[in-house]
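Schema walk-through. Below, the input block comes first and the output block second. Nothing else is stored per chain. Lengths vary across the set, and this one has 497 residues.
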Amino acid sequence: MSGRPKRPYFLAVLTIVALAVRLAAIWLVGGREPASGITYEHGEIAENLVAGRGFSVNFLGSSGPTSQQAPFYPVLLAVIYDLCGVDSATSLLVVQVLQAVAGTLLTLCVVWLARSLLPDWPTLAATAGWLAALYPSHVYLVTHFQVAVWAALVLTALLAWVAWSGGCHTWSKALATGLLSGGLLLIDPILALALPAVAYLSWRRDRDMVVGDGRWTVFGAWAGRMGRLATIAATAALVIAPWLYRNYRVHGELVFVKSTFGYAFWQGNNPVSWGTDKIPKRSDETLRLAHDGSIADQHRAMWDARHETLYIDDVLLKPTGYDQFAGLTEPERSRLLGRQAWDFVQREPARYARLCARRLRYFLLFDETNPKARHRLYRATTVGWLVSAAIGVLVLRPRWRTLAPLLAIFAAVTVFHTLTITSARFRIPIEPLSLIWAAAPYATLFDRFRAAIQSWRQTRREEEEHEAYGPRHALKGPHTPTERRYAKKELRRLLRR
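--- output ---
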């Protein structure tokens, strides 16, 4: 498992394949999805930004400035809308192509992260890269207008950058780490759960040059590491500070990036909730089309199936439920719903425990309230991913200390969504981390197969040499040109005597 890959063009081939399959997915899906309503709240905010109405949306029964979404994705859509037209086919195609590029970069970051953490196992990095390039849900993800692909890219790039042992762990690296950390919060603030693991990995990788064993030298090394951690934290705070100030001006109170935690907690925990923001309705014809027929029929059936689910808001808030929010700001409305959810948890702890168990199953396998999770390909690949990752954790047991930050991030995000609310897209940002574990069984089998082939070839060569030059061989040498030349020279020398 040592050494570097012998094929320097591996990354080029991986990049071409990853981008090609994502562009092919865009081409297959293009024109088969309704032109309106597919950008959700992000698109509405982007339209308002282009129209000069600011970062606003219709949320919980009222329209106005909002912190319902983190700023990155709506601003990205607004820039493209301004250049290519609001909600136009060209704008949507440009966004999808950008997401295909982001998905391709994510594949390369998976390879980078695996090589940075386990440099002595290049086969694992290559296998994880191929899994990331061809994993069906990640390929299909680029056709959707969700922030998940960008969150996955920045989180994986941040971890790869911190884990990378190339260059020097200087103040400039700490500054770049802080910039990436702040950008990650503006993409998806829930991923703040990953930042303690990032800090630990940065501390572990930060190896100062210590000369001698003096007390002041050791103290200086420790102080330098603490200073770099402080630089990371301060830089990340400066990145998000303008948005926090904007939220304070808009809402009259400090709001950390998004204001919707209480609202999301209420969606997943109320008397009619299934643990997500949707309640499924059964449609046998829709489910049949989602499994059979052409790709176009399947995709259209899955889109139509979205309307066979009821949103919690439509069930519990429309049409008169919004009256309870009269005179309240957006954070206050969210807190009110959060208190209702907490009252439900206290009244029915057993029901809450069952919802948590259901959410854990949804998060690790498939969300039964999401019609697209009923597709056989999605279910098969999800089961394959989960089984491979579980086996990989056992295979990588000697490397657990090295991979501890990744395990901690995956566990923290999983627990958070188990306790609050879940959705299929919530697993996407941390899924690339798990592909390193999922790749371990296949990389181990490939290495053992290659070692067996090399051993067989070596044994065969030794047997052939023994047969060619052994004392019992009927056609004992010389056989090779070099041996024949040497034999002729010896014969001429003997004849001259």
